[in-house]
Amino acid sequence: MRRAFFRATAALAAIGLTAKAAAQEKASMPILGKGRVKVVYQLSEGIDQAVRAMANLRNHLNAAPDTKIVVVAFGYGIDFLVEGAKDSRGNTFEAPVAALASSGVEFRVCHNTLAARHISEQNLLMDAKVVPAGVVEVARLQFDEGYAYLKP
Amino acid sequence: MADPMRVRATENGGVVDVKILMKHDMETGQRKDASGKTIPAWHIQTVIATCKGKEVFHAQFGPAVSKDPFLNFKFKGGAKGDKVTVTWVDNRGDKRTDEATIA
C-alpha cells in the first residue's frame, strides 16, 4: 500500500517536471526563433578580408534587407576604416562604407587596437564608432544580444 | 529625436577643418512608395555651425542633397580646445544639435 503511494507520487512529480520543462521551452522558443535577424561580422585580417566583406555585406543586404548588421573591426581589420585606405585596385573604402552605413550597417572599431597601433580616432572614417575592445564586443553581441557570427 | 551626427574638428596652422556627417533620410518628395503613393518631402533645410558663440557656417539644404549628408568646411579663428556646435533643422521642424572639441 505504502509502496504504491510512493510510486504514484513519483509518477506525478515526473509529469509535473516534464510539463514544466515543456512550458519553459515554449516560452523561450519564440525569442530564439523569431524577430529581426542580427549578424556580427568580424574583420581582423586586413584589406583583402575587408574587400571580401564589402561584397558579402552588399549581397547580404540585397538578399535580406531587414538584417541588422554590425561590423566589428580589430587588429589588421581596422585598416580599411582609416582615412585614405585603398584596396589593391586603388579604390578607397569611403564610398562603400558610407553606402553600407546608410543602409543601416554599423562599423565598430576596437579602441585597444587604436592604442596599440598608434592610430588616432581622428583618422578614422566618419562612419566608424569606437568601442573599448573588439573581442569583447563580438562576444557580447553573440551572448547578450543573440547575434549570429560571420567571418568573411 | 533624430539620430546623432558625427562632428570632427581639427586645427592646423590657424585653420579649423570641420567634418560633419548628418544622419537623415532626406526624402525629396518626388519618390513613390510600393503602393504608388508619393512619399512626402522630409529633408534638412538649414545647417548652422557656431564656434565661441559666433556663427562660422550657415547653409540652406534642399531636396537635391543626398541621404546622410556629409559636409566639410574650414574656418579661421578657432583654437584647439574650443567647441564647434552644429545644428540642423528640417522642413518638419525637427532639430538636432551636436558639438565637437577642436583637436
TrEMBL record, chain A:
Gene3D superfamilies: DsrEFH-like (3.40.1260.10). InterPro entries: DsrEFH-like (IPR027396), Sulphur_relay_DsrE/F-like (IPR003787). It comes from the Bacteria. Pfam families: DsrE (PF02635). This is Uncharacterized protein. The lineage of its organism: Bacteria, Pseudomonadati, Pseudomonadota, Betaproteobacteria, Burkholderiales.
TrEMBL record, chain B:
Pfam families: SoxZ. Transmembrane segments: none annotated. Residues 6-100 form the Sulphur oxidation protein SoxZ domain. It comes from the Bacteria. This is Sulfur oxidation protein (SoxZ). The lineage of its organism: Bacteria, Pseudomonadati, Pseudomonadota, Betaproteobacteria, Burkholderiales.
